[in-house]
Amino acid sequence: MTTYNVGDKVRVAVTHPPGHRRVPYYIRGKTGEIERYCGAFANPEELAYGFDGRPERPLYRVRFMQSEIWPDYDGPANDSVDLEIQEHWLSPA
Amino acid sequence: MSEDRRTHDMGGLGGNPIEFADHDAEPWQKMVTAIRAALGDEPMRLMRVDELRRAIEDLDEQEYDLPYFERWAEAMINLMEEKDLLTRDEVTARMEEIRNRVGGKA
Amino acid sequence: MADERDTKNPEDMHHPHVHEEGKFLKWDDDSDHDVNETGHYELMAEAIRELLIEKEIVTADDIRGNLEFMDSRGTHLGAKIVARAWNDPAYKQRLMDDGTAAVGELGIPMGDVELVVVENTDDAHNMVVCTLCSCYPRTILGLPPDWYKSKSYRSRVVHEPRVVLKEFGTDLPDGTTVRVHDSNADMRYLVLPMRPDGTDDWSEDQLAELVTRDSMVGTAPAKSPD
User: Fold this and answer.
1) Among partner residues B25, B76, B104, which is closest to C143 by beta-carbon distance?
2) Catalytic residue among C72, C133, C150, C224, which?
């Protein structure tokens, strides 16, 4: 039973904490849709500093429309970027 | 570009046309990769790839401009110092010794 | 295993060819070489290697084993996976459902990461990038090409994938959606390119020859039969 299900709309947090993060700058604050649940993984934000990264954190593939990410995107409306975002970076949109 | 965006975080920044010239990794580059992998092996897990990524991200602007494997090597030394595995001074001294050792006929 | 560095005889420490992995210092004979030939980073890699072995942090075998594993990875493994998927619909379904398990059937380990296979169709073309560093399915395809690791590819593919595809000489039919996958965490991606026309009764070995590295990263289609 995961917090988010396939198809749910989610928003990536806008925050720029120092340290090792795997949420690229360009996607912060953007809204997308859950494409799949990937499973739970040790947190790279902590692994990066020699800690065991546990408890494991849920990870989702999230699909974002290009037009949502870039105001100037000039390709077709369905073009997308998929990223893997940890649950703690997401909130319902 | 916002100060919030770190040097390595480059999605969407634009850039030059793709250059297709490719080179097989040189032996020293494969060596650096294999050393990191050996350090990361179970059970000791002395250097996870996440730690190396972080160490590369923490390089200063000049160092981040180095080519790919050179960045790895520099970051690995910083990381190994952090973990008390060896020091940069030891590496430098050993480099000099090797240079002298193989520099020509004895 | 006793390492040659263990010897107490200083004379034994002056032959570059004694170092098996030290062949990367570029010479393994005794001829005169200009010290300047040995690059800074070559010396650095060897220095790190020697120090770690002497300090018993890793063994020469550990390093050698990792080198050998890396050398065994390459396009041929990815091509085998793709050809199998083209040839065997049940395998293809398993590959799409659980990439890690399916490549595991072929003896290919994913290690700490998981494989997601993304399929090119008439409706959608997939491209893979890692904007944050250069994550790549290395246990399948080996080391990534320079362009994949370049700042240019990493910054542009998520923003202007169609322009980048054109630079690779890849034109997509109208109406094809482009899906970019930014490999930013624990998943690794393999593109399953479309099976070229005119290959209906080809064997898997023949099919595998059409599968290029670039087609599995998503910058080009698979080769067509001539």
Assistant:
1) B25
2) C133
Which tokens hold the place of C223? 């080769």
% of chain B with per-residue pLDDT over 90: 79
pTM, full prediction: 0.90
Contact A47, B48 (CB under 8 A): yes
CATH number of the domain bearing residue B69: 1.10.472.20
* Residue range C119-148, pLDDT digits in tens: 999 999 999 999 999 999 999 999 999 999
Strands C124-129, C177-182: parallel, antiparallel or unpaired by DSSP?
parallel
Spatial neighbors of B65 by CB under 8 A, at least 6 apart, are: none
> What is the pLDDT at residue C37?
58
Report pLDDT digits (tens) over C55-102: 999 999 999 999 999 999 999 999 999 999 999 999 999 999 999 999
Check if B8 contacts A (Cβ < 8 Å): no
Whether residues C178 and A26 touch (CB distance < 8 A) is answered with no
Contact yes or no for C159 and B14 at CB 8 A: yes
Domain of B59 in residue numbering reads as 27-101
Q: Are C79 and C65 within one domain? A: no
More confident residue, B102 or C11: B102
Residue whose C-alpha is closest to residue C157's, from A49, A31, A69: A69
Answer yes or no: is B58 within a domain: yes
What is the number of alpha carbons within 13 Å of residue C32 lying toward its C-beta? Answer: 1
DSSP string, B72-91: HHHHHHHHHHHTTS--HHHH
C81 and C182 co-located in one domain: yes
Structure tokens given for B63: 């160092």
d(Cα C110, Cα B42) in Å, to the nearest integer? 15
What is the total count of domains within chain B? 1
Judge whether A6 and A62 are in contact, CB under 8 Å. no
Query: Is B26 close to C24, i.e. CB distance below 8 A?
Result: yes
Domain boundaries A9-92, corresponding CATH code: 2.30.30.50
So what's the ipTM on this one? 0.98
The one-letter amino acid at C131 = T
Eight-state DSSP code of residue C115 = E
- The separation between CA B9 and the C-alpha centre of its own chain, rounded to angstroms, equals 17
